Give the backbone structure.
Amino acid sequence: MSKKVFMKGNEALAEAAIIAGCRYFFGYPITPQNEVPAYFAMRLPQVGGTFLQAESELAAINMVFGASAAGARVMTSSSSPGISLKQEGISYMAGAELPAVVVNMMRGGPGLGSIAGSQGDYFQAVKGGGHGDYRLIVLAPNSVQELADLTVLAFDLADRYRMVCMILGDGFLGQMSEPLVLPTPSGESFDKSDWVLDGAKDRAPRIVRSLRLTPEDALEKLNLRLQEKYHAVEQNETRSEEYMADDAEYLMVGFGISSRLLKAAVHSLRAQGVKAGLFRPVTLWPFPSKQLAACAAGKRRVLVVEMNAGQMVEDVRLAVNGSVPVDFLGRMAGMLPEIKTITERIKNYAA
Amino acid sequence: MQLNTREKVLEKIVFARNALLSEKAHHYCAGCGHGIVHRLLAELIDEFGIAQKTVLIAPVGCGVLAYFYIKVDGCEAAHGRVPAVATGLKRVNPENIVIAYQGDGDLLAIGTAETIHAANRGENITVVFINNALYGMTGGQMAPTSLVGQKTKTSPYGRSAAEAGYPIRACELLNSLEAPVFIERTGVHSVKQIIRTKKALKKGLANQIENRGYSFIEVLSMCPTGWGMKPVKAVEWIENQMVPYYPLENFRDR
Amino acid sequence: MASGRPVIDTALCKGCELCVSVCPQKVLSMSEDTNDRGVPYACFDESDNCTACAFCGQICPEYAIRVIRYERVAEEV
């Protein structure tokens, strides 16, 4: 039987990153993810890696740019305001096709906001945040176990597609401690030799950049290639989970910490004779639209529960495309929706 | 027995374009100092035999395409972030020789934090700072290095110290830090200064090759287009206006 | 007798005149006509006064000037 350890989310993700072969971390303190840099500071020297506390989140993402261009598996982590600072660097990495893993332990916003966990950065993660036509692979774990598992996956996805992969967590996930089995690396290796900057020895010099100024070196060509890549990701990497959804009449949709509440709500409702089920996107980009549309078909109502003013609900509505009514229930600024409130809403539909 | 001899004249090339400089003509304005510094770097990279180990990081500014002009690996950086990108590259591949090439805005405006902290950490890199006292690429706006009274696109009445503060002396600023091992200010406005610049760049690269730490070379450079004067006048402007404020000296050589 | 000569690639010249200004021997001047860039270009006066000091080459930002020094050697007939 695999050994279980009891770890805080922030620390589990750092250990999982090291398991995945990440030996470089550049970050900056911000609540509620401070355990991430602290853990790396303690652990990376033990495995011959490099931890550097950068002068800002902005500097950190640019250190990631350089380290990634040099061929390393590299991570940075922050929380909402710091992720805003990283947007420029993320856009640059998307254009230069540099792989890396960026962790956002969301907190209340906008602005300095609060230090409690929230889900207010869905739009920023999934719809852009930085400038230009680009995508991030966005993973939304809902437990410490899944956080660790998806961290290992994130490095593989980043290297496989030469993209930035974001782990969209929240303050609750980062701070909570749960038992988990530490993941094992996939063992897949990725050949970076045709693009890394390691000195032009026995090969022509090359440049890592997102800049394409001249017509014969056109930016549109790059963008078309990026779009092709993103299409492949959409075909291959969508992930979601359904819970008691097959015979459900009312389908609840949530990601991350909200989905934990929704699972409890499903149990509570079923105990009261209401056929409720849960659809949980795990990849927020690519969004599991097909799977959600199929799951929602024939349901009486869909209720999307998020800890924001209504962000993922837009993608749910797009996926469902008018075939089922979609409602929203949310709390903001780090307030957790009460399970009672959720179940009451569903029972109102049933009445 | 006396041999019959005659004098034969051999032609020896004493100065020619280095093979590491790209054949592609660069885009800099007539009389701009960038071309001269690129040549010195190419020659030194060749002399040290490090072309296969060098990564040149280009800034945002007139030098944004610098990596097209010297035949070594090149890397982009967002505006001001060259020292952070350099840190990432160097920490992952310490055997690479990382050259951080920056202008006024990159180094002293948007990138001030990155500049100071890479120097403060003593990153084993070579930072080349091209000081032309304004923002060239974007049309000639005031820079942190613009002189009091200097007219630019965003200081049309001349820089006012009360409004915009005083010009920043990068070498003196970094000289307050413990870690850097080499700090020098030179120019490219005369052959004598060009030779000094090459010596300073040579020291900066040697320090990196020998893992001795952080080197910083500030080069006062002509910007005829930005200053609205012919190159020969731009040379005079450096001598008469810039040098009194930005002394050409070595500040540190450990 | 001449010590050397500069060889100027007039197509690369951007007409900055820096070489003219630094030449200690004053053997350089700007042409009357223009090159394909539309600017006057640097010219050598073909005199014997060049000392092959290469100041012109050193300051040229376009690497347009190559400098040749003459070495006189005795050769058996």
